[in-house]
UniProtKB/TrEMBL annotation:
Keywords: Leucine-rich repeat, Membrane, Repeat, Signal, Transmembrane, Transmembrane helix
Stretches that traverse the bilayer: 296-318
Keyword Cytoplasm: no
Protein name: Uncharacterized protein
Signal peptide, first to last residue: 1-21
InterPro entries the UniProt entry points to: Leu-rich_rpt (IPR001611), Leu-rich_rpt_typical-subtyp (IPR003591), LRR_dom_sf (IPR032675), SLRP (IPR050333)
Source organism of the structure: Adineta steineri
Length: 350
């Protein structure tokens, strides 16, 4: 009897699962084997009326109105035993949802209005290998924000297009292999690069780095012969007259800088737009450029001063001119000793 009852329950569950799978695939796009489900742009505010097939491996819920701030919504995701890729881009999350998914390997939370990168304790000992938090509003990341991922298998992390100026958190990601920090607010290469650990690829494109000199972590790479590293630096505000060391570095370690052939000077003006690989520091005349600037500024300031003085003098002369129209010069009287206090009419003189 129990055997028949168990079989009946299994049949009911299978039928229920099939119905659910058909329902979700009417709303979303599903692969034939139901391992990939795309529910992008469906206007979803919650998952109350949706059940996903148990064999889904990749689930995308891009551009909805999901927050995952209820246990029910999170349970719908956590109950998928084979889920490895979860993409929640363009949802108003604001914080990282506290999922507990041991099978998850890739998590994408791009453009979700995140202001914090703190991972909840539920991610402790997770299987995450890749994370993307790009296109958010993260100003800073504390050293402890990624602490629960310390023992994870995380190898790739993207923080592109945020507002970061430092990266102390790197020390808590010992297995990290690649980090993307493009379009942030770095003004120099952070000191954490001096102890790269297992990181082999750094990207700092589209930042505000102006000077790369002998104090840069790249000098440590050079001294320690870290030839298996790659760093990408295009579209920064490089001052070539203050980066002689880096220009020489490119001559001997060209392969370390991934896009070295595209790097250009932003300043000073006489080098703006020139490729760094075409420059020879021994032939760059930066001193003259520096001394010419004050001279040019002085000439321009003097010219502007002359114009201002001329305008003021002309204004004063025009203001005084009408006041003298009623006066007549009297022969034999020296103006230096004072003339009449009021205008003299022709009748009074006669």
């Amino acid at each position: 009897m129990y055997i028949h009852l168990s079989i009946a329950i299994i049949i009911v569950l299978v039928i229920k699962s099939s119905v659910n799978a058909i329902d979700v695939c009417k709303l979303c796009q599903c692969s034939d084997d139901l391992t990939l489900i795309n529910c992008d742009k469906k206007g979803l505010q919650n998952l109350d009326n949706i059940d996903f097939p148990s064999n889904v491996k990749t689930l995308t819920l891009i551009n909805n109105s999901l927050k995952f701030d209820t246990i029910n919504d999170r349970t719908k995701i956590e109950s998928l035993p084979k889920l490895t890729n979860l993409i929640l881009n363009q949802n108003p999350l604001e914080i990282i949802p506290p999922f507990n998914i041991r099978t998850l390997q890739f998590l994408s939370l791009e453009d979700t209005s995140l202001t914090s990168a703190e991972f909840p304790i539920s991610y402790n000992n997770s299987s995450l290998q890749r994370i993307s938090l790009s296109n958010n509003k993260i100003h800073s990341i504390n050293e402890t924000d990624f602490l629960v991922l310390h023992n994870s298998q995380l190898t790739e992390l993207s923080l592109k297009n945020n507002q970061l100026k430092s990266c102390e958190f790197l020390l808590n990601l010992p297995r990290l292999y690649s980090i993307n920090l493009d379009k942030n607010q770095f003004t120099s290469l952070p000191e954490q690069l001096t102890t790269p650990g297992k990181i082999r690829n750094y990207s700092f494109m589209h930042n505000f780095i102006t000077v790369i000199d002998e104090t840069s972590p790249l000098n440590i790479w050079l001294k320690n012969n870290y030839t298996n590293m790659k760093i990408y630096l295009t579209n920064n505000s490089l001052d070539c007259c203050l980066s002689f060391w880096f220009i020489r570095f490119l001559k001997i370690s060209f392969e370390i800088v991934g896009n070295a052939s595209l790097l250009t000077c932003t300043s000073p003006l006489n080098f703006a737009g020139k490729l760094l690989i075409d420059l020879n520091p021994d032939e760059m005349n930066c001193h003259n450029d520096i001394t010419k600037k004050p001279r040019v500024i002085g000439i321009i300031s003097g010219f502007i001063g002359i114009i201002i003085i001329s305008i003021v003098a002309a204004f004063i002369w025009n203001q005084r001119r009408p006041l003298r129209s009623g006066y007549r010069e009297i022969d034999g009287i020296d103006e230096s000793y004072g003339g009449p206090a009021f205008p003299i009419s022709d009748e009074e003189i006669q």
